[in-house]
Amino acid sequence: MRVTHLGKTAAIAVAASIVMAGAATGALAQAKIDLTGKWLFTVETSAGTGTPTVTLKQDGDKLTGHYSSQTLGEADLTGTVKGQSVNFAFEGNVQGTAVPVTYAATLDGKDAMKGTIDIGGAVSGTFTGKRQ
Predict the structure, then answer these.
(1) How far is CA 113 from CA 7, 21, 43, 87, in A?
(2) Domains of the chain: total
(3) What is the mean pLDDT of each run of 10 residues along the chain (132 residues)?
């Protein structure tokens, strides 16, 4: 079979269209993930375990919300969503002392995430989160 210059150009154009359509579809699917809602986290650290409730509101790549746990108390949070990465922080309460708490996660579909937690640089651990 002989491929002409026009045939090669058409084949390249078709291949490029398929790749671009796939990328656009992937971007649209990713953009549709909205973390807004109530989440239940399971946290494991060297200081113990816990099951905080996190309420998130997503506006573009910006996150706001509320954190509630028996260990760190009640606090408003702020963070970001970039692709599959989620980060948020707040001031937790440890025995009457305010400590910075940061969560860094990777999305696992639209209703799950997993990652790490850091509490004041003194305690770290891992967590999983599921949308309720």
Answers:
(1) 46, 27, 12, 11
(2) 2
(3) 52 47 45 89 96 98 97 97 97 95 97 98 97 97
